[in-house]
Amino acid sequence: MxxxxxxxxxxxxxxxxxxxxxxxEGRGRYSDRGAAPPQGxxxxxxxNDPKFQKDVFTFVRLRYSxxxxxxxxxGGRWDTDYPDSDKNFSYRLQQLTSLKVNPEPIFLxxxxxxxxxxxxVYMIEPGNLLFSDEEVVTLRRYLLNGGFMMVDDFWxxxxxxxxxxxxxxxxxxxxxxxxxxxxxxxNCVFPLKSKPQIPSIHHWYRxxxxxxxxxxxxxxxxxxxxxxxxxxxxxxxxxxxTDLGDxxxxxxxxxxxxxEMSEPKAYPLGINIVFWAMxx
Length: 280
Known about the structure:
Helices cover 37% and strands 12% of the residues. By secondary structure, the chain is an alpha/beta fold. The protein has a single domain (41-279), classed as Rossmann fold. A 5-stranded mixed β-sheet has the order 3-4-7-6-5, with helices on both faces. It has a two-stranded parallel ribbon with strand order 1-2. Helix 3 crosses helix 4. The longest helix is centred in the first third of the chain and has 26 residues, at 2-27. It starts with a helix and ends with a helix.
């Protein structure tokens, strides 16, 4: 039965995307119904069936402790790109697929009891991450009980070493492993021909046309690593040396950045990750 449900969802997503593509082709590549980057897309809203308000996908950002202090107030690394990236991604997810999506993304402390109501969470800029003991225990329990975490936007060896040290506190007996290009997260909805590296828009402005998309000398190669549970279920995807969140947040700032980074890379991979997490 589970395989049938997954197949039906995949068919629905594929049909929905095909319909959006036909609409774009019929009205020009950038239309009001296509993936054009209208200014203020973060203000877009939509309504779901009031009978199923809880049966929708909600973008949940994690608020965590870090080396800059408690990380509990705005200004900590946890809220980079917030709230525009979360709203833009939610809008595109409901626009380009058949998934029902909450138009209001939220953020939660790792230790918030509501965390277990949501199957997918997003963590950004963990280069100075410093979990409390309570966060370690709660995050481990959340992930082993079926939760999924996407980690994004940190660069270079030092930030990786710090994140690795902290995630090993959560899973001392589990090793993050590189996801190869034939893994379904790179093709389950949108096929990607390479592992994308998405720089911040400020870095893109500075180096546009040079081919340089890495933000630091020791971050030239993008890495996508995964951590699985005892049943080989992917429960953590780690996006290192890349910044999908800026591709979502900044889609309306520059049409070329949208065409080169947001539309073909940041959104397709983000949607693939969500779809894989929600169907496995």
